[in-house]
Amino acid sequence: MNRTLLSVGVCLCLSARVFGDDQIPNVRCEVDKSVEALTQPEKDALRRGDRSFSSLVAELIEKNGPPEKPPELPDTGNAKAIDWQQAKRMLWNGLITTVMQTHKRSVVLVTPSGRAYRTTEPTIDDVLRAAALVDPCHKYIRFITE
Asked: Contact, 76 vs 144, CB < 8 A?
């Protein structure tokens, strides 16, 4: 139970830091800036799957499994046009697994079946804020930005 609450608290703190404290009321994040989660060499060793690099890397590999090949980008050439309201409803109902966003506010949403939908967000990063309501830690929705 304590781990679950800690995980939820960490996710809320990270989300509050990324999206601004006003997006998640009553959440304040205090982070010890003297301790970095992972150094760059540790991140590199983790990507390589090098268990001999350090105990921390070995435990992370044991916990999360060996590094996977990055998933291929979905085919968005035949994306069906939808309006912004429908796009938000699809996100909020858990129907989207991948979000792609450009600087021109063009957004492509991809479902688990591989179907792609395109829309234009009213302002930049609206899609990130909309998705954060259902996936604040970005564990289930993959984001690809330009």
From this structure: no
